[in-house]
Each structure stands twice: as C-alpha cells, then as structure tokens.
What we know:
By secondary structure, this protein is of the alpha+beta class. Helix content is about 70%, strand content about 5%. Strands 1-3-4-2 form a four-stranded mixed sheet. The longest helix has about 35 residues, at about 170-205.
Amino acid sequence: SSAAITLTLLTNLMCARKEGYLVLGCTGLALFSLALALMSVRSGRYDAITLSVPFSLLLAGLSFIHASIRVFLHKTNLWSSAILGASAIVLSSTPYFLGLMGLGGIAIEVAAAVILTFCALEYFAARDEVRLAGLTVAALYLLIAVSYFSSAVLLAMEGDWVLYPIEARWYDSVNAVVSLLGIPAIGALTMTLHFARAAKRDLVAARTDPLTGVLNRRALFERFATDGAIPGRSVLVFDLDYFKAINDQHGHAQGDRTLRCFGELLRRCFSADAMIARIGGEEFCVVLPTDQTRRA
Length: 296
C-alpha cells in the first residue's frame, strides 16, 4: 500500500512537473509511506529511536501535505506548515526518550489529528473555489483526523503511560485501515481538482488576447453565437487611427505598448459586466449590458 501511494504521486508529478504543490504533496506522501513501511519492519523493537523515527516521518509527511494544500490554494506563506510540523515532532517524540511510551503514542495520535484537521480547514476555507471535490477532500481529512484522535482517547483511557512492551490494539488497526484508504482517495481527488483547474486555465487562455489581456475575437463570437442578439444591447467599436504610423516611426514594441495601454483604458472605463474584446490588429469592441444604453 505504501509503495502504491508513492508511485501514484510520482506518476502524477511527471504529468505536471511545473506545479510546486505536487512536489510538496509527493514528498509528504513519500514520507508518510516510508513511515508506514518502517512501522511494519521494526521486528519487535520498541526503544525510543525505533518508535520516534517512523512517527516523526509520519508527522513530517503530514506537514508537507499541509504545505502542498496551501500552495495549491495560492497561499505563499509556508511557515505555518513548518512550525506546525516541527512542534508536533518535538512534542510527540519527547515522551519516548523519557520512557513514557504510552504518553508518546497519545501525543503522536493527537499531533497527527491536529495537522489533519488543519488540512481539512484549509480546504473548507476555500470552499468557494474548490466546491464539491474540495469539500469531499476536507471531509476525508477530517475523517482520518477523527480516527487518530479516537485512538488517542482510547489509549488515554487505559491510563498506562509507560506501556511496555507495546501490543497491537484493535483501534490501531482501524486507524491504519482508515489512513490507507483515505490518503489515496485524497490524492485522487486532489488530482481531479488540479486537472479541473488546468482545464479552466487553458479555456481562459484560449479566449484571451495575450497582448492586451482582453477577450479575443473567438471568445466574442462564441458568446453571441450562443446567446444571439439581445434587443437593447449596445455595441461600441474602436479603431485606433494612425496606428500603422506608430509601428513605422517608433517600432512594433511601442505599437504593442499602445495596444496594451488602450486595453487597460477600456477596462478602467467600463464596468466588469461589459464584454471587451480585441477583434483585429488595432480594432476593439465593447458590448454593454442592456441597462447601460444611455452610457453608450
């Protein structure tokens, strides 16, 4: 399961290597998978190093995942992820070196639950952008967080802070199953969000004039091929006189700058619900809503 999770993320990373959040997410899931692998091969050893290393890797992986979510949601400040992960690792590993294996287990479970809850909150805060798929991801993070927190509560109810030797408990198995099922599902839904965003970005690029930033001819005619003519709509057409002379006398760079400035001028002069398009070399068209006839 650990190898499958890592392989899935690496494959997705190869498909979209320019996305920084994928690098962080892949690193996080690789650390998460490595932690699970180390837990499965500790061969009955339960000293402080054997316990703290895989659990620290698990928390580090979750912190990288939290950072990838912030990057995906266009948040550049990653200090919160770093501080969250470092604090969780230090606070949860300390009991192991004090010989309090039971308390260390509780601390690990609580720390993981806290980071996962923060992951869920990041998606929930951006629910207007991520919509149903993002809310589903938030729910999965919260479900895994509840699983970790429940394990911590059940372990605390036993009241054994030393807990040595450590024995497998049924709620640990449930927690592992929830994690192994939830994390790949989160990865798949995150890739769905990524490809949906990429498709939207490509659509916007195909409908935008790259020089001026306004709509292009294709976008304008596609819109009215669908909507048709609406009575009362105003159409303004602008043709920049002597534009060829600007190119001839001052160069095409100045001509491009003139077009960009004029496009920006149109955006400032008209409201956001007006359609502004460049339909030719120096020709622009503005289509106003029906309630702005007098303004036209």
